[in-house]
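User: I'm putting together a teaching handout on how multi-component assemblies are represented. Below are the sequence lines for each component of a complex, exactly as they appear in our records. Could you produce the 3D structure of the whole assembly as C-alpha cells, so the students can see both representations side by side? Please keep the chain order the same as the input.
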Amino acid sequence: MKNLKFLALFFTTTLFLASCSSDDDNEPINEEEVITTVRVALTGGSVPITLEWKQLDESAGPAITVSGDLEANTTYTGVISVLNELENPADNITLEIIEEDEEHQFFYQVGTGLNISNLTYLDFDGNGNPVGVSFSFDTGDASQGNFTVTLRHEPNKDAAGVSDGQIANAGGETDLEVTFPLVIQ
Amino acid sequence: MRIIFILFFISFLSYSQNCNQTLIGRVTDFHDGSPLAGAVLIVAGVEKFAQTDFDGNFRIENLCEGNYTLQVSHPECDTKALQFTIPYNGSLNIRLEHHLEELDQVTVKGSAAIDYVTTQLENRIEKEEIENLSYASLGDALKTLSGVSSLNTGSTVVKPVIQGLHSSRVLIMNNGVRMQDQEWGVEHAPNVDLNTAGSISVIKGASALQYGGDAVGGIVLVEPQRIIRKDSLFGTTVLTGSNNGRGGTLTSTITKTKESGWYGTLQGTLKRFGDFETPDYVLSNTGLFEKAASFRFGLNKFTYGFEGYYSFFNSETGILRASHLGNAQDLFNAINSDRPLVINDFTYSIDNPKQGTTHHLAKAKFFKRMSNFGKLEIQYDFQFNNRLEFDVRRGGRGDRAAVDLELTTHTLSTDLSFDANSKFKANSGLLVRYQNNFANPETGVRRLIPDYDKYDVGVYALGKYILNQKWILEGGLRYDYNHLDADKFYRKSLWESRGYDIDFPEIVVEDFGTQLLTNPVFDFHNFSGTIGFSYSFLDDYELLTNYSLATRAPNPSELFSEGLHHSAARIEIGDLRFNQEVAHKISVALSKTSGNFQFTVNPFLNSINDFLLIEPSGVEQTIRGGFQVWDYKQTDSYLLGFDLDAKLKLTEQFDYSTKFSFVKGYEREGDTPLISMPPANLSSMLQYNNKGLNNLRLRLESNYVFRQNEFPDTNFEVFLPISETTEILDLSSTPDAYHLIHLNADADFNLFGENDLSVGVTVNNLFNESYRETLNRLRFFADDLGRNIVLRIKINY
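Assistant: Of course. Below is the structure of the complete assembly, with chains in the same order as your input.
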C-alpha cells in the first residue's frame, strides 16, 4: 500500500515536471547580436563618400561598396554606423556601442601604399579614452590601398599605444573587422 | 484472529500427549534448488537438533505433537526461523538464501546474474580513493585508472576518455540510470557528483550490453554504497581545503539501515573555488561553484524490494576569460602569446563566459526474486537536464544565456535474470525511452541543438556458461531502435551550399525568408553484440578475451551543428546524411591476480567503420573577420593500444605500482592520425603503509606524460588585414612532454571511536611545473595548474 502511494506520487511529479517544457515555439530566432552592415560616412571633400560592408548571411559572401574615390590632400571626417539589418527596422548597434563606450574601441588601419595620415579620434568615453565612432584623417597624394576598420569588445584601453589608435596591445575580442579598398585621386 | 488462536490452543492441548513423532525435510538453495549440506536445524525450547546430509535431507525424531519454532542456519546463509506443527504431513522443504554477501552486492548493483561482464576487463575505484578525491571531478577520479584519460576545458570541465574515445562514445551509468546530460559536447562534463559514489567502475568496451549497445569507447558505472541488512546508522563527512583555487569541498553522507531491509541515505556536497593559478599567473574566470544532493531509500528484502532515488546536481563553471575570441586574428594573437591575454587579480566571482548546468535524476526500481529461476527488475527513471552557456555579449545581454537547452528523458526498463542453474546464467531485458530537447528561443542566438523528440526501444539477451573451474564463456546480443524527429531552422545559404535543397526538399516545412524551418526525421536500427571467454590457469593467472560490436547513431551535434563556437573561434558544421558508426573491438587481458607481484596487460584493437570526426575544411570570411570552418565527416578508422598495470609488494609496508597507457588512432585511408588522441602516459607510485602507526599511509607518485607526436595537420593560413600579412595558425602542434610529482599522506586517529578521524594532505604538482596538456582545449591560451596543496579531514560516525 505504502509502495503504491509512493509510486503514484512519483509518477504524478514526473508528469508535472515533464509537462513544463512542452511548449513548442517554432519561430526562427534572428540573431540579435549579429552585425550585418558597417557603413562609414566620410565628409570633407566636395562629394560625401560612403563605404559599406554588408553581409546578410554568413555563409554567403559580403558585398563591399565604396561610393567613390577620395580627394587628395583633404581632411575627412568619418562617422561609422553599425547595423543589424536582419531586424526590421534595422537595429542600430552603434547606439549599443556608445552606451558601452568604455568597453568598445574602433581601430583604423591604413594599409601599405595608401596615403592617409593623422588619424584622430573625435569622441571619448567617461574615462577620457577614445571610442572612435567619429574620427578624422588627412589624405595625401594620389594613391591606393586598404583601409581596415576593427571594433574590439573589452579592449585594454590603458595598454601602451591603444589610446593613440594602435591595436597591437589592445587585446579583447574582435566584434568586427572589415577592409575597404580605397583610392585617392 | 482470536478464533485462529483458540483453534491453535485447542489443537496444542489435544495432541500434547503423543511424543514419538518425526519431522523429515530438506534444505535447499533458494535460487537453483540445489541441496545444502551441513545446515544446522534447532527446534527451539526442546533442545532437539539435526544436521543436513550431503543431499540436504534431515530428520528430527521424538517430537511431541504441537507447535514449534525451527531455527535453520548454514555457514553461507542467513539464519532463518520458521514455525511448524507436529504432526507434519510429508516433508518440510526449507529454502535458504544462499551466498548472503554476494547476493546483497548484486541486489545493490542491479544485475543479478551477470556481474557487469566476465570477459572484459573492469577497473574499479574504491570508496577510500573517492573520498580522497572529493574535491575533484568524476573525470579527474577516472583518470587515475589505466587507459582512462580526460578531455578538459580548463581544469574544472573534465570529460572521461576511455582508450582514446569520449563524449557520446562513453556511456555513464549513475546508480543504474544512463546519464542523459547532453554528453555530445566536448565541453560538457558529466553532471555527476563524484561524492555520491560508493565505487566507480570502468569497462573498456561495449560488452556490458544491458546498459546500451553504443558504448564504442566504454562504460563508466557510478554505483552507490552497498547496503547491508543490519540495524545501523552511520555517516561520513569529508572537508577539504585547497590552496590552488583557494576553495574547498564539504561533503556528507548519512545512512540508516534496518535488519528488516529498509534503508535510507542522504548525501550532499558543496564545492567552491575561485580562480585557479598556474605557477606564473592567475587563470582569470576559472572559478567553480557546485551544489549536489541525493536521497536514496528502499526496501531490500531477499525476495523482493524497491528503491527510490533522487539526485540533484548544479554547477556554475567559469571559462577562462582569455579563451573567448572574436576571430582568427584574436586566435592568432592568443596562440602566439606565452601568457593569456587577460590576467586579472584573483577573485571568487564567476563572470562570462561561463556554464551553468542543472541535472535532476529520479528513479524508482522494483525487484522480485523468484525461487528456482532468478530475478525480475523493473525501473523507471526520469532526468531533466538544463544547460546554460553565458557569453561575453553586447548591449547588456550578458545576463541572458546564449545557449539554453532543456533535455527531458523518461526511461522504463526491465531486466529478467536467470540464475537457477549453477552453470548457466542469463539476463534479458527491454528498454523504452522518450526524450525531448527544448532550445529556449529567448537566447537571441540561433539554436545550437534543435528542438527534437526522440524515441528509443532496446532489447537484449546475455548469457554466461561456466564450463568448468577454468573456462567461462559469455555472449550477448542487443538491438536498439532510435527514432528522432527534429524541428530545425537552417539558413537558406547553408541549406543550399550543403546540397540539402537537392537531397531533402521534402523536409522543408516553412520558408521564413533567410531561414527555413525543416522537419528532419531519422530512424536508426542498431545491432550490437559480444562474445568472449575467460580462462584461469596456473592458480592465479587469468586470460580474458572479448569481441564486442557496438553501433552508435549520430548525435544531434553531429547531425545539426552549424554555427560559431566561441571558445574555439571556429564554425562547426554537421551533416544530415550521416549514418551510424559501427565499432568492432577486440580486447585481451592477461592478469596475475595474487602474490607479491601482480599485473594486468590489456591490448586492444578497435576498428570503427564510419567513425564520426570533425576536421577543418576551409576559412569563411565574416563581418568579424576570418574563421576556420570545421566539418564533421565519416571515415573508417581504427584505434589500437594497450594498458599495463603492475604491482609489486616490496615489504610488509612498501608497495610499488605502475601504470602505462598507450593508444594510437588512424583513419584507415592514408593512415592519417586521428585528432585528440591522448598521449602515452606512465604513472608510478611508491606507497608506505604502517598499520601500527595510526595506519599511516604515504604515497609518492610520478606521472610522466609523453608528447603526442602523431596528429593530423589542422593548421590554416589566414590573411590578417591589420598586419596585411598571411599567417599560419598552428593549431596542431602538441605540447611538450611533462613530468609531475605528487605526494599524498594520510593517518587515522581516534576521536570518539576507533579510527573515526582521518587526516590527510595531498600535494599535486609538487615542484610547481609549468606544463600544457594535449587534450586540454584551453592549452592554446594558458598553462595548466601549478602546485596544489589539499588538506583533508574525514570523520566517520
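A couple of points students might notice: Confidence is low (pLDDT under 50) at residues 1-16, 100-114 of chain B. Chain B touches chain A through 58 residues (CB under 8 Å).
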